[in-house]
């Protein structure tokens, strides 16, 4: 079974600084997708960024970028120029499409607080 | 262009009652996924449905829980004889077709509280 591990339950960063959230996963598949979702206090799940395993280039979306290390099964999220609105829970997720089904497998999350 | 709708947003039930959670997927989407988020946890997959079919229910508890997605109307997640441990946020997501993970759009969730 696929597993996703986020080893940092909580993190904080000063506004305008950079922070990196860690994620590791375990899979025997060669082609797969990885995601970072943001969940603000409203609890709405918002897709931040995704990475396709067959692409070597790290994905980037404005201030959000990933460091994808396939051999190490590591998928960290870097937030540059942190803003107060970035305060939220961040979940790393793996798209599992084995056995004719498909679903997202989530880590336990990292609570990020951006301080003014 | 309405997104995924879930209702109610908040639901309070006493132990032993039934809870019915509804999910209307985005227009044109025929695939629905239900996830549960316990306090201080990530989302956990429960069930994957297409219209009138259950594709994968491997994440559903064996008893008291059921799900359907009829030809007409919303998808329903039903919890019979609720217990305190069922208190959680339940999220629905929908997609247009299989094989494209970036098209799983999430609803705002239903927060179930069991007294």
Strand percentage of chain B lies at: over 45%
Unreliable sequence segments of chain A? none
Structural class of chain A: mainly beta
Instruction: Report the principal-axis shape of chain B.
Output: globular
* Gyration radius of chain B, rounded: 13 Å
Outline the biggest β-sheet of chain A: 6 strands, mixed
Count of individual helical segments of chain B: 0
Oligomerization category of the chains in this entry: heterodimer
How many helices of chain A? The count is 0
Strand count, sense and barrel status of the largest sheet of chain B are: 7 strands, mixed
Average pLDDT level of chain B: 92
Which class do the helix and strand fractions of chain B yield? mainly beta
Q: Can you describe what's shown?
A:
The complex is a heterodimer of chains A (116) and B (115). Chain A is mostly beta strands and 116 residues long. Chain A is 0% helix and 53% strand. Chain A is globular, with a radius of gyration of 14 Å. Chain A starts with a strand and ends with a strand. By secondary structure, chain B is mainly β. The model of chain B has no long low-confidence stretch (mean pLDDT 92). In chain B, a hairpin with a 2-residue loop joins strand 5 and strand 6. Chain B has strands at 5-7, 10-13, 19-24, 31-37, 43-50, 53-56, 65-68, 75-79, 88-95, 105-106, 110-114. The interface between A and B is medium-sized, with 24 and 25 residues.
């Amino acid at each position: 079974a696929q597993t996703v591990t986020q080893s940092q339950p909580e993190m904080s960063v000063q506004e305008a600084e950079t922070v990196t959230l860690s994620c590791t996963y375990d899979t025997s598949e060669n082609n797969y997708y990885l995601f970072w979702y943001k969940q603000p206090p409203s609890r709405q799940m918002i897709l931040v960024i995704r990475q396709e395993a067959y692409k070597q280039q790290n994905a980037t979306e404005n201030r959000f970028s990933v460091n994808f290390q396939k051999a190490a099964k590591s998928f960290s999220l870097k937030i540059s120029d942190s803003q107060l609105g970035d305060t939220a829970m961040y979940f790393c997720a793996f798209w599992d499409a084995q056995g004719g089904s498909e679903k997202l497998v989530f880590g336990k999350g990292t609570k990020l607080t951006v301080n003014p | 262009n309405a997104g995924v709708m879930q209702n109610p947003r908040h639901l309070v039930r006493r132990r032993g009652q039934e809870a019915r959670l509804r999910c209307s997927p985005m227009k044109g989407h025929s695939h629905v996924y239900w996830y549960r988020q316990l306090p201080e946890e990530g989302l956990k997959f429960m069930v994957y449905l297409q219209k009138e079919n259950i594709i994968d229910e491997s994440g559903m508890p064996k008893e008291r829980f059921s799900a359907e997605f009829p030809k007409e109307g919303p998808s329903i997640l039903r919890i019979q004889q609720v217990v305190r441990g069922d208190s959680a946020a339940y999220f629905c997501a929908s997609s247009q077709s299989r094989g494209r993970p970036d098209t799983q759009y999430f609803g705002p969730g239903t927060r179930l509280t069991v007294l």
